[in-house]
User: Fold this.
Amino acid sequence: MRITAVSLTLATFILASSLQLHAGTLNNVTLNNVTLNNVTLPDTAQVGSTTLVLNGMGLRTKYMVKVYVAGLYLPQKSSDPAAILKADVPKRIVMHFVRDVSKSQLTDGFTDSFNDNAPDAAKTLKTEIDHFFSALGPIKDGEELVFTYIPGTGTTVAEAGKDKLTIPGSAFGEMLFSVWLGPKPPNAALKKGILGQ
Assistant:
């Protein structure tokens, strides 16, 4: 009886180890995804001819309510928020919502973040901000907002898988990314997460 129990334990261990070795592959295709709070994002994203890597993921909470999981994509990993903001390279933020959010909740949140993290830019880029807000709509649980900055083009806003607009220039992109990378992010754990810390 004791030998059978030991054999069963050993067999279970070998099976579990074998499954771990094969985790991430399916029909010889490698699956490289990262999961946080039951939200899975791919570890790379293609922007034009540039492959971006997932720098990190963080969870946005407000009053202990989970709002969205954010993923930051960069050409190469970095934990320096100032360098990320200043670098004129392709970059992307994915906001995967885990609850419904109204348009006014979105615009109020962005307004507060712009004023907290880039107050001078928020004043000089009022036209761009108004244009940005006009494109936003309510977001449903499971939908994504994706912001992609491309040098020489500007910042593209995609909502629920559809491109909504592109705001030219680098200034708006820097202000937008400062929402998560500036001195006053929505919450500290979110910033640390997307910086891979």
Observations:
- The chain has two domains: 1-31, 33-194.
- Residues 6 and 12 are 10 Å apart (CA to CA).
- DSSP finds seven helices and eleven strands in the chain.
- The longest strand covers residues 50-62.
